[in-house]
């Protein structure tokens, strides 16, 4: 099932426009507010891990996912690994990856939204729509390259960008409750002089903290393909922009479905939460000379997990036959990646340092010589 959003005026394929955040017709300029559009899929048919799910629903969420795995919906997709779709615009036959949920026809450039992979259990609850357009992404990227200290001259030219792709990456956003108890041994050390004596006074304290903390929207990327560390570095996203999902947001972009369930990724969230709790508790123990934790126990519970799509610009860049990959937060413009280092520039850079060192030592020698 391919979903298309045709312009009601001229029939062209409408696309999401990051500048206006509206659905826009590239041919006649007509716009539509996506928030006013009926969702393509009944939101009630979605899984129970909606934002509104109550604490009682939590067990059911897990149950849902286990059922889902046993029915091996994944298997069905794997059978269709090389699924063929026919572009309704130009008739071209496209072969898509099993994880793709939205793409662009490589022949006629029209958006293709693969509805069968976005409905039922696979329906995202929320999306952060792109706020950075392709043009702005390219511009930001160029600026970012220029700020790199040692980049090859050619690298900063935009025409070296071999591909720039707007991509919605699947994430789980967790709401969790962390309960914890911590015991610590703390000291207060005071030095003073009393008569002929230098006195060091050490007081010992038993410190105890018990906390219950709620955390919202802790993200974990659920895509197998995307490098975890790269995705972690793209954070933070501003979650106030989380919007109810609707398929028009995907028009003109690539989107992928999740490979890991929220339960499978929970250990990563647990680790993050415990780190936050550590920080929180440490910040409440102040005014001591030393603090040593003797015992800490944490219990992290998932209250809720929302399947969300977050915007990322992926840029691949070819330099001297080597491909470089960069990612840009499609909401904030933050770039993650490493520009290549040119040998010429390194030599020049070292050259200038060596020259300065030489000049300084030369001047010192002159000064020293002058003194005699
Ligand atoms: Zn139109
Ligand atoms: Zn086509």
TrEMBL record:
Region of interest called Disordered, as start-end residue ranges on this chain: 36-55
Keywords, alphabetical: ATP-binding, Helicase, Hydrolase, Membrane, Nucleotide-binding, Transmembrane, Transmembrane helix
Signal peptide span: none
A GO MF label: helicase activity
Residue ranges of the TM segments: 347-368
Domain of life of the organism encoding this protein: Bacteria
Name this protein carries in UniProt: Replication restart DNA helicase PriA
Species, as recorded: [Clostridium] polysaccharolyticum
């Amino acid at each position: 099932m391919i979903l298309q959003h045709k312009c009601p005026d001229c029939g062209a394929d409408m696309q999401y426009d990051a500048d206006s955040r509206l659905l826009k017709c590239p041919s006649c300029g007509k716009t539509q507010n996506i928030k006013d559009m009926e969702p393509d899929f009944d939101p009630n048919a979605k899984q129970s891990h909606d934002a509104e799910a109550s604490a009682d629903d939590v067990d059911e969420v897990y149950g849902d996912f286990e059922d889902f795995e046993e029915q091996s919906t994944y298997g069905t997709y794997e059978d269709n690994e090389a699924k063929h779709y026919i572009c309704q615009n130009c008739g071209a036959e496209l072969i898509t990856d099993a994880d793709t949920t939205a793409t662009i026809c490589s022949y006629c450039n029209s958006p293709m939204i693969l509805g069968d992979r976005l409905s039922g259990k696979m329906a995202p609850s929320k999306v952060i729509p792109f706020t950075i357009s392709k043009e702005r992404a390219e511009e930001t990227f160029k600026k970012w390259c220029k700020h790199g200290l040692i980049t090859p001259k050619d690298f900063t030219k935009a025409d070296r960008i071999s591909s720039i792709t707007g991509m919605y990456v699947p994430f789980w956003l967790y709401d969790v409750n962390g309960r914890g108890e911590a015991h610590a041994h703390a000291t207060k050390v005071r030095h003073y002089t009393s008569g002929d004596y230098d006195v060091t006074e050490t007081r010992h304290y038993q410190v105890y903290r018990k906390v219950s903390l709620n955390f919202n929207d802790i993200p974990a990327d659920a895509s197998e393909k995307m490098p975890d560390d790269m995705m972690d570095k793209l954070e933070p996203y501003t979650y106030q922009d989380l919007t109810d999902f609707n398929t028009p947001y995907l028009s003109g972009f690539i989107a992928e479905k999740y490979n890991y369930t929220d339960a499978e990724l929970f250990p990563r969230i647990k680790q993050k939460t415990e780190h936050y709790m550590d920080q929180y508790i440490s910040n409440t123990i102040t005014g001591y000379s030393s603090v040593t934790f003797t015992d800490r126990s944490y219990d992290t519970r998932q209250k809720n997990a929302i399947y969300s799509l977050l915007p990322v610009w992926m840029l691949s860049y070819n330099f001297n036959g080597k491909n470089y990959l960069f990612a840009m937060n499609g909401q904030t413009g933050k770039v993650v990646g490493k520009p290549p280092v040119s040998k010429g520039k390194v030599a020049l850079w070292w050259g200038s340092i060596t020259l300065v060192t030489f000049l300084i030592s030369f001047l010192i020698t002159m000064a020293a010589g002058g003194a005699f």
